[in-house]
């Protein structure tokens, strides 16, 4: 993994969180190292599957859609790692690489969706390609298509969601579901960005999102770049801020949504949903259709990643828990569909949230 230091992001609000640089045969995956934000903006080049796997695992790239895009590009790197001796060589290397990438993180379904798609294209095109290089080119085209589709879906989510936000409202969000979590525009933050582009005055309250502070480090950074007013609060302050009447809507992202609408998102989201219900504040989930897992009837079957206890005991380098104390560190929780006012997708808003409504929107 090589590092490309820069003094700041490209001029303008657009972010290329993850992308491909170069040809199919010699290119690399370039991504923003989100572990260095907000104090340092670094782009890193990943030349092989293992560096992409490490970037996903260590949260250098994070957010369900962005993980899916990174994995798709990583599959291209893996497809060429055994050389281009034959079409079968490329196909077999692709299979091995997608299997490896599937082990990086368990909860975000976009990862598996993108890798399944790359595998299907690899199998179909292996029978049609006239050379190993042609097969590799086709795989890169598919990965770039996944990236472009994500951009389009996020823009559509923003347009649909902005209709739910009123002039002068306060909106609370949890974790980061902005451009850094997708190809460039976000899901939950796409709603805010679109509302602002429509001329609506919106004030965002960003939960800091313990233990890795994605809200404080990343969401606040993105909103500040777009000159959207943002106030960072500790996670434990959300209910009080609602009680004070500062918040009129909650919008969050998702990493996997079951067939009935139960939604997995960053740990702490469930508590925010309960507080929103107690204060009669609408709670919205914003996610593309690729985040739905219709094979799971409800959220009890969503796999929940448990991460290194040191993220809690030694957050950002300083020990805050005594040695020998047990730590439980689930990265996600599941908000029941009954607490969700609507799910904002690229196809429209699903409300009320139900199995029938989801199927009608996604498959109708």
Automatic annotation (TrEMBL):
Where does this protein act, in terms of pathway? Amino-acid biosynthesis; L-methionine biosynthesis via salvage pathway; L-methionine from S-methyl-5-thio-alpha-D-ribose 1-phosphate: step 1/6
Annotated site residues (Transition state stabilizer) in this chain? 175
Task: Offer one Pfam family short name for this entry.
Answer: IF-2B
* Cross-referenced Gene3D superfamilies: translation initiation factor eif-2b, domain 1, Translation initiation factor eif-2b, domain 2
Query: What EC class is this?
Result: isomerase
Origin superkingdom: Bacteria
Which residues participate in substrate binding? 62-64, 105, 214, 265-266
Annotated active site: 255
The coiled-coil segments of this chain are none
The transmembrane segments are none
Q: Which keywords are on file for this protein?
A: Amino-acid biosynthesis, Isomerase, Methionine biosynthesis
Which reaction equation describes what this protein catalyses? 5-(methylsulfanyl)-alpha-D-ribose 1-phosphate = 5-(methylsulfanyl)-D-ribulose 1-phosphate
SUPFAM superfamilies noted in UniProt: NagB/RpiA/CoA transferase-like
What is the role of this chain? Answer: Catalyzes the interconversion of methylthioribose-1-phosphate (MTR-1-P) into methylthioribulose-1-phosphate (MTRu-1-P).
Q: Which NCBIfam families match?
A: eIF-2B_rel (TIGR00524), PRK05720.1 (NF004326), salvage_mtnA (TIGR00512)
Family, as annotated: Belongs to the EIF-2B alpha/beta/delta subunits family. MtnA subfamily.
Identify this protein by name: Methylthioribose-1-phosphate isomerase
The species is Tautonia sociabilis
Q: In the UniProt record, what gene is named as encoding this protein?
A: mtnA
């Amino acid at each position: 993994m090589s590092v490309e230091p820069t003094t700041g992001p490209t001029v303008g609000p657009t972010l290329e969180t993850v992308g491909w640089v170069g040809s199919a045969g010699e290119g690399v995956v370039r991504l923003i190292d989100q572990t260095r934000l907000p104090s340092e903006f670094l782009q890193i080049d990943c030349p092989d599957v293992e560096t992409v796997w490490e970037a996903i695992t260590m949260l250098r790239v994070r957010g369900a859609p962005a993980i899916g895009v990174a994995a798709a590009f990583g599959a291209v790197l893996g497809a060429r790692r055994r050389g281009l001796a034959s079409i079968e060589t490329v196909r077999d290397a692709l299979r091995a690489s997608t299997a490896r990438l599937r082990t990086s993180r368990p909860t975000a379904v976009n990862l598996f969706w993108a890798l399944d798609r790359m595998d299907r294209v690899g199998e179909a095109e292996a029978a049609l390609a006239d050379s190993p290089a042609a097969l590799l080119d086709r795989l890169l085209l598919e990965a770039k298509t996944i990236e472009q589709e994500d951009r389009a879906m996020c823009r559509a989510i923003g347009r649909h969601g902005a209709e739910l936000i009123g002039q002068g409202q306060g909106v609370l969000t949890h974790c980061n579901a902005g451009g850094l979590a997708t190809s460039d525009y976000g899901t939950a933050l796409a709603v805010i960005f679109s509302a602002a582009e429509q001329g609506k005055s919106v004030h965002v309250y960003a939960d800091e999102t313990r233990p890795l502070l994605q809200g404080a480090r990343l969401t606040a950074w993105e909103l500040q770049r777009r000159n959207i007013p943002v106030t960072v609060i500790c996670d434990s302050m959300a209910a009080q801020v609602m009680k004070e009447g500062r918040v009129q809507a909650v919008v969050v992202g998702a990493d996997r949504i079951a067939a009935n609408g139960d939604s997995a998102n960053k740990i702490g989201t469930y508590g925010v949903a309960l507080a929103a219900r107690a204060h009669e504040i609408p709670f919205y989930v914003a996610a593309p259709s690729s985040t739905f897992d219709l094979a799971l009837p409800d959220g009890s079957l969503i796999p929940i990643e448990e991460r290194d206890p040191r993220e809690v005991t030694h957050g950002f380098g300083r020990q805050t828990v005594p040695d020998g104390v047990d730590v439980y560190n689930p990265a996600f929780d599941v908000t029941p569909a009954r607490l969700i006012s609507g799910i904002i997708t690229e196809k429209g808003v699903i409300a009320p949230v139900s199995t029938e409504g989801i199927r009608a929107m996604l498959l109708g």
